[in-house]
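Protein modeling request. Please complete all fields; requests missing the sequence field cannot be processed.
Requester role: graduate student
Desired output: 3D structure, token encoding
Chains: 1
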Amino acid sequence: MKHILLMLFLVGSVMSMAQESPQWKGKFEQLDQTLPTPNEYRTGSGAPGPKYWQQKADYEIAVELNDLNQSISGTEKITYHNNSPDVLKYLWLQLDQNLFDKESNTGKTAVSSVQDSVTAKTMAGQFSLYNFEGGYKIKSVTDAGGKLLKTTVNKTMMRVDLPQPLKSGEKVTFQVAWSYTINDRNFQGGRSGYEYFPDEDNYVYTIAQFFPRMCVYDDVVGWQNKQFLGRSEFTLPFGDYKVSITVPADHIIAATGMIQNPQQVLTKTEIERFEKAKTTFDKPIVIVTQAEATAKEKTKSKDKKTWQFAATNVRDFAFASSRKFIWDAMAVKLATTTPLAMSYYPKEGNPLWEKESTIAVKNTLEVYSKYTVDYPYPQATSVHAASIGMEYPMICFNFGRPAKDGTYTTQTLQRMLGVVIHEVGHNFFPMIINNDERQTTWMDEGVDSFVQLLTELERYPNLDWSRGKPAGIVPFMKGDKSIMRPLMTSGENVVAIGSEQYAKAATALFILRETVMGPELFDKAFKEYAERWAFKHPKPADFFRTMEDASAVDLDWFWRGWFYGTDNVDMSLDDVKWFKVRKDQATLENKTKSATKGDLASGSKGADGKPSDFSQGPNYFSVLPTDNRFYGEFANRLDDKAVISKMENKNFYEITLTNKGGLVMPVIIEWTFKDGSKEIERLPAEIWRLNETKVTKVFAKDKEVINIVIDPLKETADISMEDNVFPKVVAPTKFDELRKKGK
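Delivered output (743 residues):
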């Protein structure tokens, strides 16, 4: 019977803990049933499987930029490699410029309302009053022999029917001819387009999405031909590019890849400076000076030049062109590669850009390479353009413009550095670790924002960076729940995309690194993910599984809470009781009687009946000799007196925590002792595994505690710190206020 009573006692203790959580939601259940089933393409460890495959698309493109009527015309030859096990009867291409077509679904699905005192610019954009004729004009789609292929255009997608089914292991070549009118970003918006400078009648062109591009066909969704509505970005296969770009002869071009014919398009002096930059590591070398660029602004060449570029194993191609460009570059020494960091900018960007841009590119390549893979491409370029931050392989377009007199504030500097780091960082996510941007925005924007923060903190520690830090996300997390969506939501369906897909995802990873896993474990697992999926197409499950596989940390509770839900972190320190061992130990009978009389009751009480401080001293409890029934079949016995002796001078603190926000997190406790010393104690999130809403735990301390704070360093994005403190902070009475004033 004694053994039965002991088992009932133990089971009863566990059951009582579970019964206190009637709304248990399984926050610590595994994600196995939610994530895709592992297979021979993607393994349960998060690594590519033995039969992983991906398609390839190679391009030969020839385009001309018309500076007189702001248009693009071009031809492309696409060689598409079918590495899948499937037979393909048709191919899908993306026609992103059709976003600007009058029949685009983007305008039709945009919601709006009438507002008083609205600007003319707002109304012109909302109702397409600019008389802009956007969208592709597809002239022809032909096979390798010049025969027309049957096509079907559906908004921003074009289906090309193949004359012969494309079998596994085969490739097909076809050609597309097209043209379109370039959009003015000031009026039509967009990620690509031009900026007009009326004072000198000149343009800066930042050109992307300028050619019909292959969609991704993969093992998870088949063709990723989800329509482009303007927000969720691009999903693209890798390939090799040869691109010829014809522009006015006085233009300078920045582009994906490396220039192939510098002797035909650069001056002898520019070539000499360019070659010097390739071996200069300490500062940028100016290849085209501000004086040289300003001189070209005053005249417009009627001649043309064709620049040739080549890029290997990239997922896209973009370029920028202008006679206004200043150009500088420097070499960056990485462990295995030596890429060039380069910047192109009009005089309107100086002196800020000449001083900061290329150095920021260098810093980004160095820090990102440390956490992921060495930057594999020959160069990385930052181009200055008004009011934009947008990324492509080896090139990005970035804002940050000083005042007309050249002065700039710390805020302008910080925003400029932030956008350069972020957009250059996109070379790693998604240009190398190539996720599906159309469906999982956080995998590039959020992950990139996280490594951006690490770069900012390491290379620019004197500036005040907030996005990605736990405290920075608190205002959003405690805000309107109706606009919140889980991170796993497609970007097109997200309301607060910046706060969620960028900032919340970055914050989650920052907390995962700094608080949950620790930098050493996190960094090893994160680098493993980057190495496994460089130049491949990872999905969320591949990231989740790799981070666990490479660290031996069960993180399903973390992914479930931060990525699959909209709960917030809000812990409350509800109750604290201070105990000491009674030195005059009672018998079991006397102890039971005294407890009934209330000698374990708390001291000073607050309005809620709970202890408000430690002023009334500790409560006392007895420690009794161990009854034989607690030993079961074991013959040896504990020295009870020695145990009691060790406990006599200790202080025991029973604390009760409530999870009010729903998002389970580690518990971080700061103890402040009577002698002024402090201790931080960390408990894993699994403390909530049996009861997701309330936990009680006793701590033994050698010294008396005078203050307790939960999450003292604000590491977990707790939305309310007021209830994380004991003794409770009591609002001053009118008497207290008068006393402070000496009345």
